[in-house]
Sequence to fold (480 residues):
Amino acid sequence: MARRDSFSPDWLQRRLRTLLPNFPTVSLCVSLSGGADSVVLLAALAARTPKRTRLRAVHVHHGLHPNADQWSVHCSAIAKQLGVPLTTLRVKVARTRGVSLEAAAREARYEALAAELAPAEILLTAHHEDDQLETILLQLMRGAGIAGLAAMPEVAPFARGTRARPLLTRSRAELETWARANELTWVDDDTNADEQFDRNYLRRRVLPLIRERWSGAARAASRSARHAAEAKGLLDALALADIERASNGPALTVQALRTLAPDRRRNAVRYWIARAGHTVPDTTRLEEITTTLLDARADANPSVDWNTTRIQRHADQLTVQTRPIEQDVVAEQGRVAEQSLEGESVATKSAPPSATPAENEDTSWSWRASASIPLPAHCGTLSITPDLHGPVDLDSLPDTLVIRQRRGGEALRPKKGSRTRTLKALLQESRTPLADRAIVPLVFANDRLIAVADRWLDHSVQATSATPHRGRFRWRRHEP
Fold:
Protein backbone atom coordinates (compact mmCIF):
# COMPACT_ATOMS: atom_id res chain seq x y z
CA MET A 1 0.00 0.00 0.00
CA ALA A 2 1.40 3.39 -0.99
CA ARG A 3 2.44 5.66 1.84
CA ARG A 4 0.30 8.76 2.05
CA ASP A 5 1.41 12.25 2.98
CA SER A 6 1.01 13.22 6.64
CA PHE A 7 -1.42 15.94 7.59
CA SER A 8 -0.13 19.52 7.36
CA PRO A 9 -1.42 22.97 6.33
CA ASP A 10 0.28 22.51 2.96
CA TRP A 11 -1.47 19.17 2.46
CA LEU A 12 -4.80 20.82 3.30
CA GLN A 13 -4.19 23.56 0.72
CA ARG A 14 -3.51 20.94 -1.95
CA ARG A 15 -6.64 19.06 -0.95
CA LEU A 16 -8.80 22.17 -1.22
CA ARG A 17 -7.39 22.90 -4.68
CA THR A 18 -8.50 19.41 -5.72
CA LEU A 19 -11.99 19.65 -4.21
CA LEU A 20 -12.81 23.29 -5.00
CA PRO A 21 -12.24 24.37 -8.63
CA ASN A 22 -12.09 28.10 -7.78
CA PHE A 23 -9.76 27.78 -4.81
CA PRO A 24 -8.14 29.95 -3.50
CA THR A 25 -10.47 32.73 -4.73
CA VAL A 26 -13.34 31.54 -2.53
CA SER A 27 -15.12 32.30 0.74
CA LEU A 28 -14.67 29.62 3.41
CA CYS A 29 -16.77 29.21 6.56
CA VAL A 30 -15.53 26.63 9.10
CA SER A 31 -18.05 24.96 11.42
CA LEU A 32 -16.18 25.19 14.74
CA SER A 33 -17.48 22.97 17.54
CA GLY A 34 -14.41 23.40 19.75
CA GLY A 35 -13.42 19.74 19.46
CA ALA A 36 -10.00 18.64 18.25
CA ASP A 37 -11.03 18.00 14.64
CA SER A 38 -12.61 21.38 13.95
CA VAL A 39 -9.87 23.24 15.85
CA VAL A 40 -7.23 21.52 13.69
CA LEU A 41 -9.14 22.39 10.52
CA LEU A 42 -9.40 26.07 11.44
CA ALA A 43 -5.80 26.35 12.68
CA ALA A 44 -4.37 24.68 9.57
CA LEU A 45 -6.40 26.96 7.33
CA ALA A 46 -5.38 30.08 9.25
CA ALA A 47 -1.71 29.08 8.98
CA ARG A 48 -1.61 28.93 5.16
CA THR A 49 -4.75 30.47 3.66
CA PRO A 50 -3.90 32.82 0.76
CA LYS A 51 -4.97 36.46 0.99
CA ARG A 52 -7.46 35.93 -1.85
CA THR A 53 -9.40 33.49 0.33
CA ARG A 54 -11.97 34.92 2.74
CA LEU A 55 -11.97 32.81 5.92
CA ARG A 56 -14.34 32.89 8.88
CA ALA A 57 -15.79 30.46 11.43
CA VAL A 58 -19.23 29.74 12.91
CA HIS A 59 -19.99 28.11 16.26
CA VAL A 60 -23.48 26.77 16.99
CA HIS A 61 -24.48 27.07 20.66
CA HIS A 62 -27.22 24.47 21.27
CA GLY A 63 -27.58 25.19 24.98
CA LEU A 64 -28.10 21.48 25.72
CA HIS A 65 -24.89 20.63 27.62
CA PRO A 66 -24.00 22.18 31.01
CA ASN A 67 -20.64 23.24 29.53
CA ALA A 68 -22.10 24.78 26.37
CA ASP A 69 -21.25 28.33 27.50
CA GLN A 70 -17.64 27.30 28.26
CA TRP A 71 -17.32 25.70 24.80
CA SER A 72 -18.57 28.91 23.22
CA VAL A 73 -16.03 30.99 25.16
CA HIS A 74 -13.25 28.60 24.15
CA CYS A 75 -14.19 28.86 20.46
CA SER A 76 -14.13 32.64 20.73
CA ALA A 77 -10.66 32.51 22.26
CA ILE A 78 -9.34 30.13 19.60
CA ALA A 79 -10.71 32.24 16.77
CA LYS A 80 -9.30 35.43 18.27
CA GLN A 81 -5.89 33.79 18.72
CA LEU A 82 -5.89 32.68 15.07
CA GLY A 83 -7.15 36.06 13.81
CA VAL A 84 -10.30 34.56 12.28
CA PRO A 85 -13.75 36.22 12.62
CA LEU A 86 -16.21 34.03 14.53
CA THR A 87 -20.01 34.14 14.58
CA THR A 88 -21.81 32.30 17.38
CA LEU A 89 -25.32 31.14 16.56
CA ARG A 90 -27.62 30.42 19.50
CA VAL A 91 -30.40 27.96 18.70
CA LYS A 92 -33.21 26.30 20.60
CA VAL A 93 -33.62 22.63 19.74
CA ALA A 94 -37.17 21.59 18.81
CA ARG A 95 -38.03 18.06 20.02
CA THR A 96 -40.72 16.05 18.29
CA ARG A 97 -42.05 12.68 19.29
CA GLY A 98 -40.06 9.81 17.83
CA VAL A 99 -37.00 11.98 17.08
CA SER A 100 -33.85 11.61 19.19
CA LEU A 101 -32.25 14.61 20.86
CA GLU A 102 -29.10 14.01 18.79
CA ALA A 103 -31.07 14.13 15.54
CA ALA A 104 -33.04 17.21 16.64
CA ALA A 105 -29.82 19.03 17.60
CA ARG A 106 -28.21 18.11 14.28
CA GLU A 107 -31.23 19.40 12.36
CA ALA A 108 -31.23 22.67 14.35
CA ARG A 109 -27.49 23.07 13.76
CA TYR A 110 -27.67 22.66 10.01
CA GLU A 111 -30.75 24.86 9.73
CA ALA A 112 -28.80 27.62 11.50
CA LEU A 113 -25.71 27.07 9.33
CA ALA A 114 -27.82 27.06 6.16
CA ALA A 115 -29.40 30.38 7.13
CA GLU A 116 -25.99 31.87 7.98
CA LEU A 117 -24.15 30.78 4.83
CA ALA A 118 -23.73 33.56 2.26
CA PRO A 119 -24.35 32.99 -1.47
CA ALA A 120 -21.52 30.92 -3.02
CA GLU A 121 -19.84 30.54 0.39
CA ILE A 122 -18.33 27.13 1.20
CA LEU A 123 -19.08 25.50 4.55
CA LEU A 124 -16.19 23.33 5.76
CA THR A 125 -16.84 20.61 8.33
CA ALA A 126 -14.14 18.54 10.02
CA HIS A 127 -15.49 15.02 9.46
CA HIS A 128 -12.60 12.61 9.04
CA GLU A 129 -11.86 9.06 7.94
CA ASP A 130 -12.92 7.49 11.24
CA ASP A 131 -16.24 9.35 11.15
CA GLN A 132 -16.83 7.92 7.68
CA LEU A 133 -16.13 4.36 8.85
CA GLU A 134 -18.49 4.77 11.80
CA THR A 135 -21.21 6.16 9.54
CA ILE A 136 -20.92 3.27 7.08
CA LEU A 137 -21.06 0.62 9.83
CA LEU A 138 -24.05 2.29 11.48
CA GLN A 139 -25.84 2.39 8.13
CA LEU A 140 -25.13 -1.31 7.67
CA MET A 141 -26.62 -2.08 11.09
CA ARG A 142 -29.74 -0.12 10.08
CA GLY A 143 -30.11 -2.06 6.85
CA ALA A 144 -29.46 1.00 4.69
CA GLY A 145 -29.41 0.90 0.92
CA ILE A 146 -27.00 2.46 -1.56
CA ALA A 147 -27.74 6.03 -0.39
CA GLY A 148 -26.84 5.18 3.21
CA LEU A 149 -23.72 3.24 2.28
CA ALA A 150 -22.49 6.17 0.17
CA ALA A 151 -22.19 7.90 3.56
CA MET A 152 -20.71 11.43 3.54
CA PRO A 153 -19.64 13.01 0.23
CA GLU A 154 -16.53 15.19 0.13
CA VAL A 155 -18.36 17.99 -1.71
CA ALA A 156 -22.11 18.63 -2.07
CA PRO A 157 -24.44 21.60 -2.58
CA PHE A 158 -25.60 23.18 0.67
CA ALA A 159 -28.01 26.08 1.21
CA ARG A 160 -26.89 28.96 -1.03
CA GLY A 161 -23.38 27.57 -1.39
CA THR A 162 -21.43 24.33 -0.99
CA ARG A 163 -20.42 21.99 1.81
CA ALA A 164 -16.99 20.37 1.76
CA ARG A 165 -15.33 17.81 4.03
CA PRO A 166 -11.61 18.10 3.20
CA LEU A 167 -10.46 15.81 6.06
CA LEU A 168 -12.29 12.63 5.01
CA THR A 169 -9.00 11.00 3.99
CA ARG A 170 -7.28 11.80 7.32
CA SER A 171 -7.65 9.79 10.53
CA ARG A 172 -8.57 11.09 13.97
CA ALA A 173 -5.15 10.05 15.27
CA GLU A 174 -3.33 12.05 12.57
CA LEU A 175 -5.31 15.17 13.38
CA GLU A 176 -4.75 14.90 17.12
CA THR A 177 -1.02 14.28 16.58
CA TRP A 178 -0.78 17.52 14.60
CA ALA A 179 -2.83 19.36 17.23
CA ARG A 180 -0.49 18.29 20.05
CA ALA A 181 2.61 19.11 18.01
CA ASN A 182 1.26 22.63 17.49
CA GLU A 183 0.12 23.01 21.13
CA LEU A 184 -3.53 23.50 20.25
CA THR A 185 -6.21 23.24 22.90
CA TRP A 186 -9.69 21.84 22.44
CA VAL A 187 -12.76 20.82 24.43
CA ASP A 188 -13.85 17.25 25.11
CA ASP A 189 -17.55 16.40 25.16
CA ASP A 190 -18.00 13.94 28.02
CA THR A 191 -21.13 12.53 26.36
CA ASN A 192 -18.76 10.89 23.84
CA ALA A 193 -18.01 8.33 26.57
CA ASP A 194 -21.68 7.38 27.02
CA GLU A 195 -22.01 3.98 25.36
CA GLN A 196 -25.80 4.05 25.30
CA PHE A 197 -25.36 6.01 22.07
CA ASP A 198 -24.72 3.69 19.11
CA ARG A 199 -21.87 5.71 17.62
CA ASN A 200 -20.02 5.84 20.97
CA TYR A 201 -20.47 2.10 21.52
CA LEU A 202 -19.15 1.42 18.05
CA ARG A 203 -16.18 3.76 18.52
CA ARG A 204 -15.18 2.47 21.96
CA ARG A 205 -16.02 -1.24 21.82
CA VAL A 206 -16.20 -2.46 18.23
CA LEU A 207 -13.73 -0.45 16.15
CA PRO A 208 -10.64 -1.26 18.29
CA LEU A 209 -11.23 -4.96 17.56
CA ILE A 210 -11.73 -4.31 13.84
CA ARG A 211 -8.53 -2.25 13.60
CA GLU A 212 -6.61 -4.91 15.51
CA ARG A 213 -7.34 -7.30 12.65
CA TRP A 214 -7.71 -4.87 9.71
CA SER A 215 -5.56 -1.80 10.22
CA GLY A 216 -6.67 -0.24 6.92
CA ALA A 217 -10.40 -0.65 7.59
CA ALA A 218 -11.19 3.08 7.47
CA ARG A 219 -9.48 3.61 4.11
CA ALA A 220 -11.13 0.51 2.62
CA ALA A 221 -14.57 1.62 3.86
CA SER A 222 -14.04 5.05 2.33
CA ARG A 223 -13.35 3.45 -1.05
CA SER A 224 -16.54 1.42 -0.73
CA ALA A 225 -18.47 4.62 0.07
CA ARG A 226 -17.15 6.25 -3.12
CA HIS A 227 -18.24 3.21 -5.17
CA ALA A 228 -21.69 3.35 -3.55
CA ALA A 229 -21.95 7.08 -4.31
CA GLU A 230 -21.30 6.40 -8.00
CA ALA A 231 -24.00 3.71 -8.03
CA LYS A 232 -26.41 6.07 -6.25
CA GLY A 233 -25.85 8.68 -8.94
CA LEU A 234 -26.87 6.20 -11.63
CA LEU A 235 -29.96 5.10 -9.67
CA ASP A 236 -30.96 8.73 -9.09
CA ALA A 237 -30.69 9.48 -12.80
CA LEU A 238 -32.96 6.50 -13.56
CA ALA A 239 -35.43 7.54 -10.84
CA LEU A 240 -35.55 11.11 -12.15
CA ALA A 241 -36.42 9.87 -15.63
CA ASP A 242 -39.14 7.63 -14.21
CA ILE A 243 -40.80 10.26 -12.02
CA GLU A 244 -40.72 12.82 -14.83
CA ARG A 245 -42.75 10.39 -16.94
CA ALA A 246 -45.10 9.65 -14.03
CA SER A 247 -45.50 13.18 -12.66
CA ASN A 248 -48.54 15.41 -12.76
CA GLY A 249 -47.26 18.56 -11.10
CA PRO A 250 -45.95 17.48 -7.68
CA ALA A 251 -48.03 14.26 -7.74
CA LEU A 252 -47.30 10.89 -9.35
CA THR A 253 -49.86 9.00 -11.40
CA VAL A 254 -50.70 5.50 -10.20
CA GLN A 255 -51.12 4.20 -13.74
CA ALA A 256 -47.58 5.21 -14.73
CA LEU A 257 -46.04 3.74 -11.56
CA ARG A 258 -47.77 0.40 -12.17
CA THR A 259 -45.91 0.05 -15.50
CA LEU A 260 -42.56 -0.05 -13.67
CA ALA A 261 -40.94 -3.22 -12.37
CA PRO A 262 -41.19 -3.46 -8.54
CA ASP A 263 -37.54 -2.60 -7.83
CA ARG A 264 -37.58 0.30 -10.26
CA ARG A 265 -40.89 1.51 -8.80
CA ARG A 266 -39.41 1.53 -5.28
CA ASN A 267 -36.37 3.40 -6.55
CA ALA A 268 -38.55 6.06 -8.20
CA VAL A 269 -40.86 6.55 -5.20
CA ARG A 270 -37.94 6.70 -2.77
CA TYR A 271 -36.25 9.38 -4.87
CA TRP A 272 -39.53 11.32 -5.28
CA ILE A 273 -40.05 11.43 -1.50
CA ALA A 274 -36.47 12.56 -0.80
CA ARG A 275 -36.65 15.16 -3.57
CA ALA A 276 -39.73 16.62 -1.88
CA GLY A 277 -37.66 17.19 1.26
CA HIS A 278 -39.03 14.36 3.38
CA THR A 279 -37.26 11.51 5.17
CA VAL A 280 -37.31 8.26 3.24
CA PRO A 281 -39.61 5.59 4.77
CA ASP A 282 -38.41 2.24 6.06
CA THR A 283 -38.61 -0.86 3.87
CA THR A 284 -42.01 -1.96 5.19
CA ARG A 285 -43.69 1.39 4.54
CA LEU A 286 -42.03 1.78 1.15
CA GLU A 287 -43.41 -1.63 0.17
CA GLU A 288 -46.86 -0.59 1.40
CA ILE A 289 -46.75 2.57 -0.72
CA THR A 290 -45.60 0.81 -3.88
CA THR A 291 -48.02 -2.12 -3.59
CA THR A 292 -51.01 -1.60 -1.25
CA LEU A 293 -51.63 2.04 -2.17
CA LEU A 294 -51.27 1.37 -5.87
CA ASP A 295 -53.56 -1.69 -5.74
CA ALA A 296 -56.31 0.00 -3.70
CA ARG A 297 -59.63 1.04 -5.21
CA ALA A 298 -59.59 4.43 -6.87
CA ASP A 299 -62.18 5.79 -4.41
CA ALA A 300 -60.54 4.38 -1.26
CA ASN A 301 -58.14 7.33 -0.63
CA PRO A 302 -55.67 5.29 1.51
CA SER A 303 -52.54 6.81 3.05
CA VAL A 304 -49.24 5.77 4.65
CA ASP A 305 -47.74 7.85 7.50
CA TRP A 306 -44.33 8.00 9.17
CA ASN A 307 -42.62 10.72 11.22
CA THR A 308 -43.94 14.00 9.77
CA THR A 309 -44.76 12.62 6.31
CA ARG A 310 -47.93 11.32 4.68
CA ILE A 311 -48.30 9.69 1.27
CA GLN A 312 -51.93 10.03 0.20
CA ARG A 313 -53.70 8.48 -2.75
CA HIS A 314 -56.53 10.43 -4.42
CA ALA A 315 -57.98 8.56 -7.41
CA ASP A 316 -55.03 8.09 -9.83
CA GLN A 317 -52.65 10.38 -7.94
CA LEU A 318 -50.08 9.94 -5.18
CA THR A 319 -49.19 13.05 -3.19
CA VAL A 320 -46.56 13.61 -0.49
CA GLN A 321 -47.33 16.08 2.28
CA THR A 322 -46.35 17.12 5.78
CA ARG A 323 -48.79 15.88 8.39
CA PRO A 324 -49.47 17.67 11.70
CA ILE A 325 -47.44 16.37 14.64
CA GLU A 326 -47.32 17.22 18.32
CA GLN A 327 -44.21 19.12 19.34
CA ASP A 328 -42.73 18.79 22.84
CA VAL A 329 -40.70 21.96 22.52
CA VAL A 330 -41.31 24.82 20.10
CA ALA A 331 -38.21 26.11 18.36
CA GLU A 332 -37.31 29.66 19.20
CA GLN A 333 -37.65 31.96 16.19
CA GLY A 334 -34.55 33.97 15.49
CA ARG A 335 -30.97 33.65 16.66
CA VAL A 336 -28.27 35.78 18.21
CA ALA A 337 -24.87 36.24 16.67
CA GLU A 338 -21.75 37.33 18.53
CA GLN A 339 -18.82 38.79 16.59
CA SER A 340 -15.82 37.66 18.63
CA LEU A 341 -12.78 38.78 16.67
CA GLU A 342 -12.89 42.37 17.86
CA GLY A 343 -14.33 41.40 21.25
CA GLU A 344 -17.61 43.12 20.43
CA SER A 345 -20.81 42.04 22.07
CA VAL A 346 -24.11 40.82 20.87
CA ALA A 347 -25.84 41.83 17.64
CA THR A 348 -29.28 40.52 16.75
CA LYS A 349 -29.53 38.97 13.29
CA SER A 350 -33.07 37.64 13.40
CA ALA A 351 -35.87 39.34 11.48
CA PRO A 352 -38.93 40.45 13.49
CA PRO A 353 -41.99 38.25 13.00
CA SER A 354 -44.46 39.57 10.48
CA ALA A 355 -47.99 40.40 11.47
CA THR A 356 -50.55 37.81 10.47
CA PRO A 357 -52.29 39.03 7.29
CA ALA A 358 -56.01 39.48 7.11
CA GLU A 359 -57.96 37.10 4.87
CA ASN A 360 -58.21 37.98 1.14
CA GLU A 361 -55.56 40.71 1.44
CA ASP A 362 -52.37 40.72 -0.63
CA THR A 363 -49.34 40.24 1.60
CA SER A 364 -45.83 41.26 0.58
CA TRP A 365 -43.17 38.75 1.60
CA SER A 366 -39.47 39.68 1.65
CA TRP A 367 -38.48 36.04 1.78
CA ARG A 368 -34.71 36.60 1.84
CA ALA A 369 -35.07 38.56 5.10
CA SER A 370 -37.66 36.26 6.68
CA ALA A 371 -37.89 32.70 5.39
CA SER A 372 -41.36 32.10 6.86
CA ILE A 373 -44.60 34.08 6.77
CA PRO A 374 -47.77 33.58 8.85
CA LEU A 375 -51.03 33.20 6.97
CA PRO A 376 -54.58 34.12 8.04
CA ALA A 377 -56.13 32.25 10.97
CA HIS A 378 -56.16 28.44 10.56
CA CYS A 379 -54.24 28.71 7.26
CA GLY A 380 -50.85 28.02 8.87
CA THR A 381 -47.49 29.31 7.64
CA LEU A 382 -45.64 29.33 4.33
CA SER A 383 -41.86 29.15 4.19
CA ILE A 384 -38.96 28.80 1.78
CA THR A 385 -36.16 26.45 2.82
CA PRO A 386 -32.85 25.88 1.02
CA ASP A 387 -32.61 22.32 -0.28
CA LEU A 388 -29.99 20.91 -2.64
CA HIS A 389 -32.72 18.67 -4.19
CA GLY A 390 -35.42 21.33 -4.09
CA PRO A 391 -37.63 22.01 -7.13
CA VAL A 392 -37.43 25.84 -6.87
CA ASP A 393 -34.71 27.89 -8.58
CA LEU A 394 -34.11 30.43 -5.80
CA ASP A 395 -32.21 32.78 -8.12
CA SER A 396 -35.30 33.10 -10.34
CA LEU A 397 -37.42 34.55 -7.50
CA PRO A 398 -37.69 38.31 -6.99
CA ASP A 399 -36.75 39.61 -3.53
CA THR A 400 -40.40 40.37 -2.79
CA LEU A 401 -43.22 37.90 -3.39
CA VAL A 402 -46.95 38.43 -2.92
CA ILE A 403 -49.17 35.94 -1.07
CA ARG A 404 -52.91 35.84 -1.63
CA GLN A 405 -55.77 33.36 -1.48
CA ARG A 406 -57.94 32.16 -4.36
CA ARG A 407 -60.08 34.72 -6.13
CA GLY A 408 -60.90 32.70 -9.24
CA GLY A 409 -59.32 32.44 -12.69
CA GLU A 410 -55.77 31.67 -11.50
CA ALA A 411 -53.59 29.55 -13.83
CA LEU A 412 -49.99 28.44 -14.28
CA ARG A 413 -47.91 26.17 -16.50
CA PRO A 414 -46.57 23.23 -14.39
CA LYS A 415 -44.39 21.82 -17.21
CA LYS A 416 -42.26 23.62 -19.77
CA GLY A 417 -43.83 23.28 -23.20
CA SER A 418 -47.17 22.15 -21.79
CA ARG A 419 -50.39 24.11 -21.87
CA THR A 420 -51.42 26.51 -19.13
CA ARG A 421 -53.62 24.83 -16.50
CA THR A 422 -56.24 26.54 -14.38
CA LEU A 423 -55.88 26.17 -10.65
CA LYS A 424 -59.47 24.99 -10.44
CA ALA A 425 -58.75 22.08 -12.78
CA LEU A 426 -55.55 21.10 -10.94
CA LEU A 427 -57.32 21.06 -7.58
CA GLN A 428 -60.18 18.99 -8.93
CA GLU A 429 -57.95 16.46 -10.72
CA SER A 430 -55.81 15.95 -7.63
CA ARG A 431 -58.91 15.44 -5.46
CA THR A 432 -57.67 18.13 -3.08
CA PRO A 433 -60.06 18.31 -0.09
CA LEU A 434 -62.52 21.19 -0.29
CA ALA A 435 -61.27 22.60 3.02
CA ASP A 436 -57.76 22.94 1.58
CA ARG A 437 -58.98 24.45 -1.69
CA ALA A 438 -60.47 27.39 0.21
CA ILE A 439 -57.29 28.29 2.12
CA VAL A 440 -54.42 27.21 -0.15
CA PRO A 441 -51.85 30.07 -0.30
CA LEU A 442 -50.90 31.31 -3.77
CA VAL A 443 -47.47 32.84 -4.47
CA PHE A 444 -47.18 35.59 -7.06
CA ALA A 445 -44.13 37.25 -8.62
CA ASN A 446 -44.90 40.49 -10.44
CA ASP A 447 -48.61 39.52 -10.78
CA ARG A 448 -47.69 36.07 -12.20
CA LEU A 449 -48.76 32.97 -10.26
CA ILE A 450 -45.58 30.96 -9.65
CA ALA A 451 -46.55 28.53 -6.88
CA VAL A 452 -49.60 26.96 -5.28
CA ALA A 453 -48.39 26.38 -1.70
CA ASP A 454 -45.99 23.40 -1.89
CA ARG A 455 -48.02 21.55 -4.53
CA TRP A 456 -47.50 23.11 -7.98
CA LEU A 457 -44.80 25.33 -9.46
CA ASP A 458 -44.85 27.35 -12.64
CA HIS A 459 -42.14 26.16 -15.06
CA SER A 460 -40.52 29.64 -14.99
CA VAL A 461 -39.18 29.09 -11.45
CA GLN A 462 -38.45 25.38 -11.58
CA ALA A 463 -34.89 24.22 -10.94
CA THR A 464 -32.89 22.18 -13.43
CA SER A 465 -29.86 19.94 -12.97
CA ALA A 466 -27.64 23.02 -13.54
CA THR A 467 -29.39 25.23 -10.95
CA PRO A 468 -26.85 26.26 -8.26
CA HIS A 469 -29.23 27.48 -5.54
CA ARG A 470 -32.30 25.36 -4.96
CA GLY A 471 -35.06 25.29 -2.37
CA ARG A 472 -38.68 24.43 -1.77
CA PHE A 473 -41.88 25.99 -0.47
CA ARG A 474 -43.41 24.41 2.65
CA TRP A 475 -46.99 24.94 3.73
CA ARG A 476 -47.75 23.99 7.32
CA ARG A 477 -51.46 24.10 8.13
CA HIS A 478 -52.74 25.09 11.58
CA GLU A 479 -55.75 23.19 12.78
CA PRO A 480 -58.69 25.37 13.89
